[in-house]
């Protein structure tokens, strides 16, 4: 007989409705209400609080078949059909990760359709698929960062059974799966948690009210978050999580929630017998996140590194607006590649203060930082969602790829970048409430109008065409220059896998040479040299040896290499 339970310290009376019938519940001193109710394994249910007749979804709902405002449905994780017993897992350190949005990765936009593309990803050479949030959110399509029922799987993607099939299929092809989890805020539609208990804090962040991590009754809120994190890895066999904007988790307790989550993740890893990884998104440049716990850190596996993105993107593209202002020089690019952070206790003109802290390169390997040239953020949060491929030539795209994939950092691609996808990735939503839909569209236009954009140029997030425009065009993969760039990406990924010197994770062993005026840079990793010419003019670089991979037509001689404009050469010394 299933037990229905909910933490609800605020209401004086809680009842559970199961398949249309109301049942009384008993409460303990900790605010947990419980009732044993004979019901079907797929029963619909919800909770009724005090004298309000509304039936609310379960905060820990395992399934929301009719959307986030409706009743929950039982789903038994132990009954899921798995065939991945041979999957031993692996850490993300040093791997190549492929970030994708389920709804726009394929024309159908479902987990089932994504399975059909897994063989392509295997052929590309990536090690992990990283899914943008798949938790339940309002509407049919959106980015997923406005989730409100964190335990449930977004039904239009295929629900929990569809996610099981996707992860099972990935594991059977040797691919790990990471899930993007958002624990720093809740979406504006379907958030009923405040009716149950003090889930929210008085501290706000750019996306709304913050989460109660340190106030009264915070212990149960923290448990709610950590149990959700563990659920993705235990019940759905995920190999780890990407943790969204952890700098917005305001926690002044002695044991930060990230440290607590990392410790419990390691404990679950020991039980399951396979590695589990936690990757933080943070703009703090704080090495504490990835410092081992026995050395005073939180012990997370890795951290997104926006400084690497900014240094590469600005040097190649020439963009210098906003938070790009301190980047763009070859010196900034070399400093960042050699040190992990550019801002490491140094002045940030964008923030108007000192920012960051130096990374201890003798303690923390480069593989604990993630390098990328594109992410959903760095594309989708541009005014029109334009990709680098819409602004740069193919040589410049090859340079960016070589610098990120040729570095010692854990690498990440954003879906479609490997073939210079022509489709944008725009900000889209499908709020069902007219007032919220209007506010979302007007807010987006106002945000970019403040930065000088014509409001008419900003796509309407609520327009279905904004979503449809963002879908990948898979027929491009085998076409002309798209196919050439894809082959170059495959070569770079194979280089990481096959060349022993490329596996060295220590920044102390990375040697970087550059010329500010001629705008070339060379990364030396043992016998491997990766030379890039960022200028339009041909240059001579001090690189010799056997050509392993190239973009352009380099002329390698006994005393150096002539590199055409916007080109790359990878050589191996004798």
Can you tag this structure with a few keywords?
TIM Barrel, alpha/beta, 574 residues, 14 helices, Immunoglobulin-like, 5-stranded antiparallel beta sheet
Fold blueprint:
Elements: E1 3-7, E2 14-18, E3 21-24, E4 26-27, E5 32-36, E6 44-49, E7 72-73, E8 96-100, H1 102-105, H2 111-115, H3 118-124, E9 128-131, E10 135-137, E11 147-153, H4 159-171, E12 176-181, H5 193-196, E13 200-205, E14 208-211, H6 218-234, E15 240-243, H7 257-272, E16 277-280, E17 302-304, H8 306-317, H9 330-339, E18 346-348, E19 353-355, E20 369-372, H10 376-380, H11 394-405, E21 410-414, H12 434-449, H13 464-469, H14 480-498, E22 511-515, E23 520-525, E24 528-533, E25 539-541, E26 546-551, E27 555-556, E28 561-563, E29 567-572
Parallel strand pairs: 8-9, 8-21, 9-12, 12-15, 15-16, 16-17, 17-20, 20-21
Antiparallel strand pairs: 1-5, 2-3, 2-6, 4-5, 6-7, 10-11, 13-14, 18-19, 22-23, 23-24, 24-29, 25-28, 26-29, 27-28
Helix pairs in contact: 6-7, 8-9, 8-11, 11-14
InterPro entries: DUF3459 (IPR022567), GH (IPR017853), GH13_cat_dom (IPR006047), Ig-like_fold (IPR013783), Ig_E-set (IPR014756), Trehalose_TreZ (IPR012768), Trehalose_TreZ_E-set_sf (IPR044901)
EC number: 3.2.1.141
Catalytic activity: hydrolysis of (1->4)-alpha-D-glucosidic linkage in 4-alpha-D-[(1->4)-alpha-D-glucanosyl]n trehalose to yield trehalose and (1->4)-alpha-D-glucan
